[in-house]
């Protein structure tokens, strides 16, 4: 099997603004996940996306959890993000 590499290498050190996310991921997964390291290049955009996803996932959201997961999985497919596809598909299982 041919080994592929990322177009953009993940950052080794993250901006201070992402340290709460990095700490949570280290505690939960044992390491900072690569998508967070890639998003570290654009911390403002990272937080905007995180706030938007939080808005979609709030309890009073008009979308049902199943429809929300389908929508997020489809967006992940359009973006060709295998990690996001897996993460969002797990919610459907």
TrEMBL record:
What sections of the protein cross the membrane? none
GO MF annotations, alphabetized: peroxiredoxin activity
Q: Which InterPro entries has this protein been placed in? A: AhpD-like, CMD-like
Give a single Pfam family match.
Answer: CMD
Query: Where is the Carboxymuconolactone decarboxylase-like domain positioned along the sequence?
Result: 45-87
Q: What is this protein called?
A: Carboxymuconolactone decarboxylase family protein
Originating organism: Enterobacter hormaechei
